[in-house]
Every structure is written in C-alpha cells, then in structure tokens.
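Known limitations

Files may contain more than one protein. Parsers should not assume a single record per file. Below, a two-record file is shown to illustrate correct handling: read the sequence, read the token line, then continue until end of file.
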Amino acid sequence: MDFKSEEWRNLVANSGFKVTPGFGKRIKGRIVLQNWATGVNFRNIKIRELQ
C-alpha cells in the first residue's frame, strides 16, 4: 500500500485513528511493540524490508 495515496488517506480518515495526529504518514521510523493487556510476551521477532 502506498502511504501517500488518496486511498490510504481515506482509509485513515474513516478509521479510529483519524484523531491521532500523524498516523500513517511516516514511511520510515521506529518499530513499537505494544502491550495492550497484561501477560503479553514477544519472542522470535523477525523484521524484513518489504519490496
């Protein structure tokens, strides 16, 4: 998906993230893993560049 496309902007605008400034506008940056509930563990995470 092209994060600069009109389609992407429409998807964000019609989602719960529309109130989050800057959501979906960066194409580079840090990766964040969030713990939405207690007892979450992450392991064997592999990150690769999409082409």
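...continuing to the second record:
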Amino acid sequence: METKTTLDEIIKTNYSKIDDLKKQNIDPFPPRFYVKNKISEIKKMDIDSKVLTAGRIILLRVMGKASFAHIKDGTDKIQIYLKKDLLGEKYDLFKKYMTTGDFIGVEGKLFKTHTGELTINVENFTILSKSVRPMPEKWHGLNDPETRYRERYLDLISNEEVKEIFVKRSRIISIIRDTLNKDGYLEVETPILCSQAGGASARPFITFHNAFKIELYMRIATELPLKKLIIGGFDGVYEIGRVFRNEGVDTTHNPEFTTLEAYKAYSDYNGMAELVERLFERFTSEFNLSEIEYDGMKINLKPPFKRISLPDLWKEKTGQDIHSVLKGKSFNRDGLYELAEKLKIDYDKQTPSAKLFERIMDWVIKEETVQPTFIMDYPTAITPLAKLKNQDESIVERFEFYVGGHELANAYSELNDPQDQKSRLLEQLKQKFEENLGEADILDKDFIEAMEYGMPPTGGIGIGIDRLTMLLSQKPSIREVILFPLLKPKEETK
C-alpha cells in the first residue's frame, strides 16, 4: 500500500539533503552566479551555441543515466539534458539532491531533440539554491484565492498569467509617466505623514510620532501639496504613489491603493478629459485592446468618449431639476427625502445628505457607466475644491470618468479663490457636525494661506491605478492587481 509523504517529512528530508551537501563542502546557497545568457536570448541562438544560464527547475524527469528538466528564469523557460557519460559523478549528485523548485546554473551547448525541442546539453551545473518546501500543486496551478493573495510568491511561481498582470501594471505606469513627461509635467514626491488629512473626504489612518509626541495622519490624497507646488511656480506636476483610507475592503477597494494625481496650470477639467483620452489612445495601441470583455460587459476603449451633463441626466432620469435637492453650496434635505421616496431608495433620517445624494446619483447614472463616459458637472456640496459652473452657486466644473460601472478618474477645474475656498470648507464642516458625517474635507489653514499668494487657473485629475489595471487586465477584483493586498491576519492553529 502506497503511503503519502507528509509536508513535515518532505521538509525534514530536504534539510537533511542540505546538511549532506555541506558535509561534502558543496554550498547549497552560494553567494553569486554570473549569468551570461537569459533564457529568452538563448531561444534566439543557433544550434551548437555555448550558453551559460540559470533558473528554477519546474519539471524534472530523472532516468537511469540521463535526465531531462525544464528550468525557468524571469524571461522564459527551456529544457536541459543531463547525462552521466558527460557529467560523471556529478550526475549522481544531481539525481540524488536536485528536485523541482531548486535553482540551478547550467553551462552547455544547444541542440534539438528528435521532437524538435531546443535543449541545453549540460556540460557543467551549479546548485544555486536548494528548496525545502514542495512547489504548489506540482506546477498545475495554485487556485485557492486566499493562498494566492497571502502567498503571492507561490501564485507568481505557479500561475504565469498572474505575472503578466503585474508586468502590464508596470507598463501602464510607464505609459502614464511618458505621456505626462512629454506634456511638460514634473514628477514630484509629497509627504505620506501629515499633520492633517486633507484633499478628500475619507477616514484616515492615525499614527504617532515619538520624537515630536504628536499624532500624524497617513495621507488620504496628494491634492493639497501638489496644488501648493502649482502656487510655487511649477506649470505642471504629478505624483504616482500610495494613499491610505481607513475604509472597508471589497472587490474595488483596498485600504492602501495607488493613484496618479496631476495638476496643470492654465488648464481646466476639459483639459483633464483630453488627457484621459490621450492616455487611452496609448493603452489601446500598445496593448491592442480596442474592445474588451470586462466582467460580462463588452466595452469599446477607443476614444473619443461620451460626455454627459449630470444635471441634464438627472432631469431625464428623475423628472426633476437637480437644484430641487440643492440649496446653494449645501443640500436641501427635504428635497432629497422626497426624491428618495419617489425612487424607492432606502434611507432614514440619520442618513447624511451627501450619502443619500450618492445613492440617488448611483441610480441616476447606472445605465450610463458601462462604456467609457465622462459624467460632467457636480454639486458644490460634495465638491468644495472645484470652480463654479457658469457662476451657478450649486454646480461646479468636475467630472468623474466611468468604465465598466466603476469610477476610474476624478477631475476638477480647481478652485483658486481663497475666500470662496475657505467658505466652502467651513460649510462642509458645518454639515459634518450637524449630520454626524464621518467623512468631510478638513479646513487646511496652511493651504488657504498658500492660495492667498495667488494660484493660476488649474486643471487637476486623480486616476486610480489599481482600477485602471483591473480594466486593462480584465480582472473583476482589485486583489488580482495588487501584489500584496491587505488581508486579515492568518489564524494560528492552536
């Protein structure tokens, strides 16, 4: 009867092999190995070429006096052939100690097997790293989502398509950088630790600085320091970096995520919409993705994209002017209640006005957010940092860019009147306290003071890199496009 080897027994056996190698003065973890040829380069070389390469053993067939294996580096994989006639006693060392998962350096000449497979005839090899734990699923794929996200290194080893997602993510960021750099933007870095968490309406993470003995906040946006740089004289700045929001986790939200924020002097939200379209021209060209299927939806990614006025769409869908739920720079709560009742949208008297408006808005725009669409012109009450639209006290020049039902970008014609900016932030703070709203922009006095030195007309945009990667990789969960998503601590077995 065949007995199944336990994990503990495999680990014990491999540690024993490591000890044996050391006793033979063979280092199973040498400090370096000089690779002359990457495997992707070898694949283009002629037969009989001499090569020196290295990689992880991913497949192994050990026979009597000859063995075949496949090794894989970061570029490709290739077959290797080892035989006792050529390697002598070293072949016995390979047979006894090497297994899948080990790293090996090999030197030899290229030939083709009778099946036409390019192969390295190994003349010498070096053990580079002896694996202790067995590879997952014998290279047939790692499928459990929890294990895949928690042990991403195993996911990358066993699922080649996962690696391609993160290669694409890197290319997406490179395209963004290249586009902005050519447009005259300067890439900058702004603080992650802040004395105030401004630039967005979100709950921050709080930490403590021991030397100053003060609480600090992890940034929830990069907006305010970037706009200070526009005030300081840069014509265009951007930052690609992590921001942190103390919020829930679902398929489109992770508490730490990556954003692009970019600001351009003498521009506006129309200029930012044009930037989005230029980026998508690059994405569709370089990834050959004019049309995709995303989460069951067929989406055309080729610009130009549709632009819809939110006030016009609101009137069309609800039969009411959007101003019926607005009152200057704040909300008309009675109007919101009446409309929610009419549309059968859940709420209670404790629901903050901003939250109730968002629920109604989600209902209004739902059918218009599958294909790439700019939803233009939002209430001042939820956008205190943008310029008024046609001097309408209740509406500002802001768009949100939607694809596949998800918001990918948010842009403003930035407010540059310090007096108006201060009054709007005060109005939102008043609303926050009156309605017990946990999320609202703070009144950053340093930012108001900076604006008092003069800020040119400016267009600004934020783009979610994770959601953008989800779309272009056609993945429905944000955890698929973040290398190490936040997970609950693993429960220890008692």
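Parsers that stop after the first record will miss the second one. For reference, the second record is described as follows. The longest strand covers residues 50-62.
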